[in-house]
Amino acid sequence: MLLTIFHSTLVKKTERQLCSLGADITQERLGDWVQKGLIYRKTEYLNDGKTMKRIVYVMGYLLYSMQREKYGAELEEMLERLKGGISQTETLLNQLADVRSEDNYQGVALNRLYKYIEKIRAALTVGYREQAFQPVSAALRMRWRESRVSKYIHFVLAVATVRIEHEQFDWKQIGAAYYGQIGGSKAFDMEKKDFLGKLEEDLGMPLHFIGLVSLGAVTPILFAGELAGSSGLYYPAGFMHATTDLTVFEMEFSTPCRVIWLVENRALLTRMCADSLFLRSSGSLVIGLDGQIRSGHRKLIQDVMGNSPSITQVLVWCDTDHSGGVIAAHVRELLRPFQQVKVKWLLSEPMNRQVGAYSTWEQYEQALQQVLLEGRLMEQEEFLGGAELWKTWING
């Protein structure tokens, strides 16, 4: 209590002020503290040096010694945390160096994460050298208290840790993979919104670019076409359907359809659903990705691809922009185990206002990069086509 009240040698308190701070502070106790040397009673005089102004209490030598000891222990603890953080960042940077690459869209996100952790390591190094935590907070442009800044740094390192182990991961996996003990999955739940917002702001892109596919919420999955679940669920062709990631993880799914469409936006899904004759005649199952591939989408696609021998081809259609390229790259990784199935990559091309169909990933990626270099972006909604055009892509 005294260390809190007399936090500096400059603090002065009158007897009235001290007694007002708590019922347990009495004249008798003040006298006991003075006798032990914890505090001193000091008389202040007016300018004439003779007339007494007031009697105050100030920090005593014993309390000062206790304060210095406490400060030394806290400083040693902080330096140990900074030193441990430096070591952790160096280890993670070495591991990230093996998975990051400028040659693909995931590489762009991983390179930003890599540089961000380099920035954290540099800030921790400066803090350790100056024996202060303030340089760390300043480098990250944070006004949070020290403990919260430290926890945020652990969060960033946890994201890097789980990303090294998994190309895609859920929110709960971040803390679980980092701490490796019961309760670890909930470690960052209290700061979820602030930590996600801060990291996304500093990286300049949503975290699903790094691989975060679920924030722990129920995710709806929209689709059109015939689909069956192992627990007796059945969705007929010709209608728009919806399920959830929770349902998807409860059972296995399969389809008698021949063609799978994986589309980024709901507009195309809605448009195709309106043409139920096309869905039936072409044997198409259209799955909407809603702007990113979450864990529920991954599970459903893996089920359908692995349990449906009827599938002959998959058509992937995303927006013509950076995020569309990232989503397409995630789809590519998802489909990698099913190389026996033909995959076509559709790209809306703003120059000629049409959609190009590419039979190889390399062709698609090259075409997308060219469009991005020209700065001409295009969303799926700008050109949805119709049944006749869709059939040419299937048959082409």
* Low-pLDDT segments: none
Number of DSSP-assigned strands: 15
Computed CA radius of gyration, to the nearest angstrom: 31 Å
The proportion of residues forming helix, as a percent range, comes to 40-55%
Distance between the termini: 80 Å
For the sheet with most strands, the description reads:
7 strands, mixed
The helix/strand class is: alpha/beta
**Strand ordering within the main sheet:** 9-6-12-11-13-14-15
Output the number of helix runs.
16
- Please state roughly what percent of the residues sit in beta strands, choosing from under 5%, 5-15%, 15-25%, 25-35%, 35-45% or over 45%: 15-25%
**Silhouette:** elongated
Mean of residue pLDDT values: 87
Q: Can you offer a commentary on this structure?
A:
This protein is 50% helix and 17% strand. By secondary structure, it is α/β, with parallel strands linked by helices. The strands form four sheets. It has a seven-stranded mixed sheet, with helices on both faces. The chain has a three-stranded antiparallel sheet with strand order 1-3-2. It has a three-stranded antiparallel sheet with strand order 8-7-10. α14 links the parallel β13 (313-318) and β14. The radius of gyration is 31 Å and the shape is elongated.
In short:
It contains 16 helices and 15 strands. The chain is of the alpha/beta class and 396 residues long.
